[in-house]
Amino acid sequence: MTFEIGFVLLVVITMLICLIKEVARPDFIVFCALAVLLLTGVISPSDALRGFSNEGMLTVALLFIVAGAVKQSGLLTPIVTKALGSGRNQRRSLLQMMVPMTTLSAFLNNTPIVVMFTPVVRKWCKERNISPSKFLIPLSYATIFGGTLTLIGTSTNLVIHGFMLENGMDGFSMFQLAIVSLPAGLLGILYMVTIGYKLLPTRKTSEESFKEASREFLSEAYVEVNSPLIGKTIEQAGLRSLQGLYLIEVIRNGDRTAPVASFLKLKENDRLIFTGVLSTIVELQNIKGLRVETGTKLKLENLQNGSASLVEAVVSHQSSLIQQTVKESRFRSNYDAGIVAIHRNDERINSKVGDIKIKPGDTLLLLANKDFANRWSNSRDFYLMSQIEDPEIINPKKSVIAITTLIIMILLATFNILPMFKAAVLAVITLFVTKTISFEGARKYIQFDVLLLIACAIGIGIALEQTGAAALVANYFVLMTKGAGVIGAIIVVYFLTTLFTEIITNNAAAVLMFPISLAIANQLSVDPMAFFVAIAIAASASFATPIGYQANLIVYGPGGYRFSDYLKIGIPLNILYLVVTVVIVYFVWVV
């Protein structure tokens, strides 16, 4: 092993550890790893920047815009709502939901689909007195099944496709992955409506848990007549530095102020609403001129009226809030909303809100003004789980243009009339020319953090390949699976990709495994397509944890799930996908 190979492997291992420990946002960690390789001269500037001009990465960017136009058309929600049916037979409704969700996610990014339909499914369940935990994991899994069906089903497929093109190969055709993923997906749906349905828990949603436990974290106090606090700001009154409580709302003559600014001056008879650890309520009782209400029957519903509303939001993997406390993130001033409570792993965190360190998957209960949902519906920091009252819906003519453009783009790529990248370029131009989507709207839908992660990960993949690190690792795997032959090598590649996907991100997993699997294929003298298909399926087939795939993370809190629920339901699915993939790949591309 040369010093250069050792250094590259050290950088990659350090990057993986940082991703697993979530020391920062994934895109920032991968960017730093690439920067180290660039600054130390391991990789040239032109090679480091190749990821930013990679055809697969650019196609992903274009498809964000196409998917955004289809999403804002408002045509998708009625399809799924109608498919769910009456709910009298829950397994049938589950099947009727999973089939269209799988179909939709074959052509659209699954993250916005899950964000869009989680509140729809939850509302449907609530109206029929069905536990949403019986439907939300299947909703996520259905989009994962669909994402593996086509070239454009997930960004991972396009990244591998772009890598293949850079290496002088043909890349995937539109439905090539379906040779493996269609039978795997059908078996997956069958599993979910039979064995999986029995394993799915019956749990309260985060919304129900918040409501039922509201008396455990909400308290109120009044500013007394002639109180020395009158005329003082919230800051001056010491209400910003309480040890266990957090001021979320001030009610004055029926008018509500939420969130509460530090400079707000107190007046006689102001009603102050706090959230936090009620055992520390003595803090309020020690403040002269403040009367604490004991035995309050305050409920969450009482916090909202015409100007204030409660909103649920799930913290994303890309969030800038991760690893910061609520106070450090300056949440109130940055988002103009107050955090009432935080739900994690099927329970509310019983601490002062300001001191809680935020993690991916946390469900935040927010008290905000009415336009909060519309302003932050496309935030990179969290996914909103409350339905937007005034959704951005374009006129029927433009809705038809959006859907027609998507279909034509798919047909052009499917019949090789245009390469996928050119078909996507044509689709985006059409959407702009017809004013179906504006430049401002397009900017909202492009996930720049995902693109940065992909581009930087490609640079790291190139470093692995050029230094010989990939060949060294490949040689080790070939020796390790010598007795099992090619099929053993495919199993190892699939397993490692799945493992990386569960603990880091799917795109990073695919990019790291691509050069290694290409080297393995060359050493074994077999068609590398066998390994590339295995990587594409394995990088998306993430079922065993809520953190490996964004779709799983989105339903984690709203469904009231525990981490163990994913292990119990997802591990059999992971094994199912591994077996189906390895068998079909071996007989189609190896034998």
From TrEMBL:
The chain crosses the membrane at residues 28-44, 56-74, 94-118, 139-160, 172-194, 400-433, 445-464, 476-497, 503-522, 529-549, 569-589. Keywords: Membrane, Repeat, Transmembrane, Transmembrane helix, Transport. GO terms for biological process: potassium ion transport. Residues 205-290, 298-382 form the RCK C-terminal domain. GO terms for molecular function: monoatomic cation transmembrane transporter activity. SUPFAM superfamilies: TrkA C-terminal domain-like (SSF116726). It is a multi-pass membrane protein. It is found in: Membrane. GO terms for cellular component: plasma membrane. The keyword Cytoplasm does not apply. The keyword Cytoplasm does not apply. This is Potassium transporter peripheral membrane component. It comes from Halalkalibacter krulwichiae.
